[in-house]
């Protein structure tokens, strides 16, 4: 049985320049599926269904539970901090406001903003490591950054989060996208799902 999806929240974009791939991503509450302009309606319906299933599966992998979040924190502490950062709990939080995470060194608790849930794994890892490092260094001094710089994607993750914040704060508007444009560049910083059209007989 396939999961159900709200097709009213799906926008299909056809492109004459798109020939061999179908791509799907989220834009707020909507799901965008970009397909070749030559697709029949039957092909469109089949590929929308397929891409929704793939996108949902990817998002499930990228949205760990509290228990999985704590396990990941333990792995990261062992790999990059010599296992010295040992939190008492690591949980998702919906009241972080503008923060990506918070740490209370006095009781060892770490809370990660629910906004990070679904972001690429390397971004979540950075946020976890940032808070884990606060168990060792309360402030953001040289020792703190020396610890965190052991993570090779620190600079990239910080740039990602800064870009995400900027995209969320900038004014909206501008010209509407032509339905035939090929939308490889879109505002959603989350990963997309892309399949080759030649996989039609083998991708399920």
Q: Find the count of extended strands (DSSP E, 2+ residues).
A: 7
* Intertermini distance: 13 Å
Helix content: 25-40%
Kindly state the mean pLDDT as a whole number? 81
- Spatial order of the strands in the main sheet? 1-3-2-7
Most strands sheet: 4 strands, mixed
List segments where confidence is low: pLDDT < 50 over at least 5 consecutive residues: 170-190, 199-204
Number of DSSP helical runs: 5
Overall geometry: elongated
The whole-angstrom Rg is 20 Å
Strand-and-helix sequence, N→C? EEEHHEEEHHHE
Task: Give the structural class.
Answer: alpha/beta
Strand content: 15-25%
Question: How would you describe this protein?
Answer:
By secondary structure, this protein is of the alpha/beta class. Helices cover 36% and strands 19% of the residues. It is built from five helices and seven strands, in the order E-E-E-H-H-E-E-E-H-H-H-E. The chain has helices at residues 41-61, 66-80, 121-134, 142-148, 154-169, and strands at 10-15, 21-27, 30-36, 89-93, 101-104, 109-113, 193-196. The strands form two sheets. The chain has a four-stranded mixed β-sheet with strand order 1-3-2-7, with helices on one face. Strands 4-6-5 form a three-stranded mixed β-sheet. Strand 5 and strand 6 form a beta hairpin. Helix 2 (66-80) packs across helix 3 and helix 3 (121-134) crosses helix 5 (154-169). The longest helix has 21 residues, at 41-61. The radius of gyration is 20 Å and the shape is elongated. The two termini are 13 Å apart.
